[in-house]
Amino acid sequence: MELTEQQHAAALEYASLSAQIRRNRAAAQQKERVARLQELAEDHRTLAAQAKDVRAEIESHQKEARAAGAQAADGRTKAESMESKLNAGVGLTSRDLVALQADIESVRAAVGQAEDRELQALESAESAEAQLEQLRRRAEEIASEGKAEGQRRQEEAARLDGEHAQLVEQIQAKLSELPAGAASIIRSSGIGVLAAGACGACGAALSGVQADAVRNAKRTWAFQCEDCESLVVQA
Ligand SMILES: [Zn+2]
To answer: Ligand 1 mean position to 231 CA, how many Å?
Structure first.
């Protein structure tokens, strides 16, 4: 069909706006940002699971420290009572005294070992607490990055939606500048710009007859693609 210069220009602008709308909708999916947000959420879950393990570890070290501490205290009480008995010396033979002395030494040695275990458990708990603090800080960083990224996603979505609304308004205006027949084809099948002897909408090469018709026609002549039925306009 023959278009006027103005209609031909409107058809080309329609095709360009249509491509812009496709790009806008692809961009609106924000694939990279959504993937990053999923990655951050996954990292946050992993850190939470690690923190749970470390908290359990801290509790176990603390429990161990309490048990060792209680054991040491019991031992000290026992040793003190034995030492009183030794110092009083009432009714004890020299053999009893030697045996008691040896028992006291053995209890004192056990107290020393329990104190070492208590100290070690407390140190382990402290180092696990430092680890927990690091995990907590990392989780906070990730949460704040996720929040910022989510904010950017919303802003970008709003910007792209605004742009989309404008493009839709513009493309509808272009459609109203076209003859009813052309507009109807575009509405039902779309539009393509002829490129290297092929339909710009579906990529199908023109038939020999169509190629001949294009060669003999003016630049403003438009036709329907035999494959996808789009309106094909010449650039
Ligand atoms: Zn086509």
So the answer is: 8
232 alpha carbon – ligand 1 mean position (Å): 8
Reported as type and span, the H/E element at residue 192 is strand 191-193
160 Cα–ligand 1 center, Å: 29
Question: What is the DSSP-derived secondary structure letter of residue 198?
Answer: B
Q: What ranges do the domains of the chain cover?
A: 30-156
For the chain (length 235 residues), average pLDDT per consecutive 10?
96 97 97 98 98 98 98 98 94 94 98 98 98 98 98 98 98 97 97 96 95 95 96 96
Domain 30-156 CATH (choose: 3.30.200, 1.10.3470, 1.10.287, 3.30.70): 1.10.287
Q: What is the pTM of this model?
A: 0.75
Ligand 1 centre to CA of 189 (Å) is 9
- Give counts: helices (H), strands (E), the chain: 5, 3
